[in-house]
């Protein structure tokens, strides 16, 4: 959690910035102003970034792009970096991408998204409800299978034969299905500025980790709706309906301090009884361990 404030940073909360480490790749979401410095504090490097994902082009979600791009160039990152952003904001992207004079890099490829749904590799983007075009993101691992030691032993399958069974699907007439169970792929959903809408629930469905804005408490619900934001109560409703395993609240209005955190939890608890994390800058939040197929049922 590189930054957890909303439009206005505070003494304790930087503008947005979220680095997801996922299967050897780094997804940097919404680098707001100061993200490059926050990465230094967090021990993260430009080489840790493989995806640069912008939900929309309000300043608190993108003003850190120039520093990140220039750091990628300065540190001579060699691997490809995919930049994903709303196609309607391409002009803003170009201004941020080339905001000042620097020795450029060609490792960054641009992937503008448009329409209600777009998919790029493990990343899915869905259109949200905000005064400007905004997208939520979901990172999804493909489903797999979990090997069951007791069944392997019962069939006398051990050593190199286990790998052969996984690769080929059968060994000595014993099938993979006989020695394993389905393993659902893990998923992380990232939902920033939006009103409550169907797409929010679709992004969050079955997520192991749901990182979601909760800009306001319910006392400001009219203001939240006007400006296209969620309340903590609505974030809890989403998490409960979607069956999210771990809920992370972030993007807090500057009107709230740490002493208001119990009120955010109380609103969430009106509908959601799972794990709740109130994000703070430089906090590390693990993705929950995989569940077995039987646990999912």
Automatic annotation (TrEMBL):
Enzyme Commission number(s) of this protein = 3.1.26.11
> What binding partners and quaternary form does the record give?
Homodimer.
Enumerate the catalysed reactions.
Endonucleolytic cleavage of RNA, removing extra 3' nucleotides from tRNA precursor, generating 3' termini of tRNAs. A 3'-hydroxy group is left at the tRNA terminus and a 5'-phosphoryl group is left at the trailer molecule
Q: HAMAP family of this UniProt entry?
A: RNase_Z_BN
CDD domains xref list: RNaseZ_ZiPD-like_MBL-fold (cd07717)
Q: Gene encoding this chain? A: rbn2
What is the superkingdom listed in this entry's lineage? Bacteria
InterPro entries (UniProt xref)? Metallo-B-lactamas, RibonucZ/Hydroxyglut_hydro, RNase_Z/BN
Class of enzymatic activity (EC top level): hydrolase
What does this protein's UniProt record list under function?
Answer: Zinc phosphodiesterase, which displays some tRNA 3'-processing endonuclease activity. Probably involved in tRNA maturation, by removing a 3'-trailer from precursor tRNA.
Residue span, Metallo-beta-lactamase domain? 27-252
Binding annotation for Zn(2+) 2: 60-61, 193, 251
Q: How is the cofactor bound?
A: Binds 2 Zn(2+) ions.
| Identification of the protein by name | Ribonuclease Z
């Amino acid at each position: 959690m590189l930054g957890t404030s909303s439009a206005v940073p505070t003494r304790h909360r930087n503008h947005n910035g979220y680095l997801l480490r996922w299967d050897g790749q780094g997804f940097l979401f919404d680098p707001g102003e100061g993200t490059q410095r926050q990465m230094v504090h967090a021990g993260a490097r430009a080489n840790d970034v493989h995806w640069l994902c912008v939900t929309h082009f309000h300043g608190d979600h993108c003003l850190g792009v120039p520093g990140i791009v220039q750091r990628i160039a300065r540190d001579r990152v060699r691997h490809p970096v995919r930049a994903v952003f709303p196609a309607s904001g391409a002009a803003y992207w170009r201004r941020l991408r080339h905001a000042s004079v620097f020795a450029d890099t060609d490792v960054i490829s641009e992937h503008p998204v448009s329409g209600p749904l777009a998919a790029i590799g493990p990343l899915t983007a869905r259109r949200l409800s905000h005064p400007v075009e905004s997208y939520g993101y979901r990172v999804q691992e493909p489903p797999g299978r979990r090997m069951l030691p007791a069944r392997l032993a019962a069939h006398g399958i051990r050593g190199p034969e286990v790998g052969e069974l996984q690769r080929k699907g059968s060994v000595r007439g014993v099938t993979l299905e006989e020695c394993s169970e389905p393993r659902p792929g893990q998923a992380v959903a990232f939902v920033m500025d939006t009103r409550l809408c169907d797409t929010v629930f679709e992004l969050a469905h079955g997520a192991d980790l749901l990182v979601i804005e909760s800009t306001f408490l319910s006392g400001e619900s009219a203001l939240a709706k006007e400006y296209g934001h969620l309340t903590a109560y609505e974030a809890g409703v989403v998490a409960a309906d979607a069956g999210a395993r771990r809920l992370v609240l972030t993007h807090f209005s500057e009107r709230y301090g740490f002493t208001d955190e119990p009120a955010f939890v109380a609103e969430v608890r009106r509908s959601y009884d799972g794990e709740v994390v109130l994000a703070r800058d430089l906090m590390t939040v693990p993705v929950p361990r995989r569940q077995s197929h039987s646990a999912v049922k």
